[in-house]
Amino acid sequence: MAKVMISLPDDVLGWLDREAAARATTRSGLIRELAEDARGERSRRRAEIMRQINAEGEGARGHGGNVAELVKANRPKWPKQ
Known about the structure:
This protein is an all-alpha fold and 81 residues long. 63% of the residues lie in helices and 0% in strands.
């Protein structure tokens, strides 16, 4: 398993330590859990967006129809809101 060094504001680090203690885990364990949860949530959101695009796409699937235009139209705007 790789080890990384990150910089966090003091208040975030304090929250992480309190939350880790409340969950009876380590700081590293909590950060790993939060990262895995975020990755799973991102995948779920992407799948839902694709279902919506397919539903709105008048039957377009894969590389057919106007899928590229639908993806561009539904892509999140930056900076993230």
